[in-house]
Amino acid sequence: MPKRTKIICVVGARPNFIKIAPLLEEFEKYPQFKKYPQFKTILVHTGQHYDFKMSKVFFKDLNIPNPYYNLGVGSDLHGTQTGKIMIAFEKVCLKEKPQLVIVVGDVNSTLAGALVAAKLQIPVAHIEAGLRSFDRTMPEEFNRLLTDHIADYLFVSDPIGITNLTNEGIPRKKIFYVGNIMIDTLKNQLPKIKNAKQKLKILNQLNVKPKEYAILTLHRPSNVDNKKTLKELFSAFKEIQKQIKIIYPVHPRAKKRIQEFGLEKWIKNIKNLILIPPINYIDILSLMASSKFVITDSGGITEETTILKIPCLTIRENTERPVTVGIGTNIVVGTNKNRIIREINKILSGRGKKGKSPKYWDGKTAQRIVKIIHQHEYAK
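Now predict its structure.
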């Protein structure tokens, strides 16, 4: 068999799976000769998300091949978890001797994978580089910063990322504007999302009709780890549900905190707040696409709602994805009850934000990334 470039792709959490799926597929389309792909990809799952519905189900939905390695680190403190991933991943790199390590997003697995590769003098590619919230109370911000300053290839999703990176002194030749790889997956799944039978199935299960409900996602430590903040938010949701049903897939972290704070009974008694377990990728996209609006503290969801043209409220004080505010359908509303209610009333009265799609959010990002890697790796 002709020699192939060996690439390790590191994933660890739900957003990583969504971003890596189109990339793995695209690598398989680069044949060196007719029978053999030019790249050999090795998928490493760190096990950062150990809950089935937060992990394995996404592999199934997105047709991602089973990982070559599952490091099984599980949940832990940030430093401990990062350290465990590094110890286990270093052994993989020493055994496989890859020519490139690809990391995605901003989770602990992202930084751990990049650090190990850099120390072993293995080139690093970071997909979704250049995102900045400028909020150093967020662990993800440190993961972004450090990974970007380690990486050899920095693939950014919008021009703001280029500005952030060049302002930090990163050479322009390392930075590549390729678009948003998460949108590749979204566009690949649109036929399933638009499938009437598929959509009606989940809507009927929850007893809701299109545009007569909202979606809520909530998991950030800054929102769920503080009892006062969490109670303030659910007080706002209690007011909102008087006008429209709210579907809330409960994140494991939020569920744990709700129980610890003794808020479980109070929240369950909110009539039109529909609590459900975490659901698969296709179902959550189907629900978002048919919703009136989305309330979230997730960055990735603000990108998906921008493409789906659904109004979105971010219940944080900042966002690392300002393009979703400047161009898309997102509004950052913080955690103040009155402001949240005020913005939702605008949506319900027909004054919701419309927005448009940013450049290169077109479903072809993986193609651009693989083409760049091919050009650079085979020019050596």
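The CA atoms of residues 2 and 343 lie 59 Å apart.
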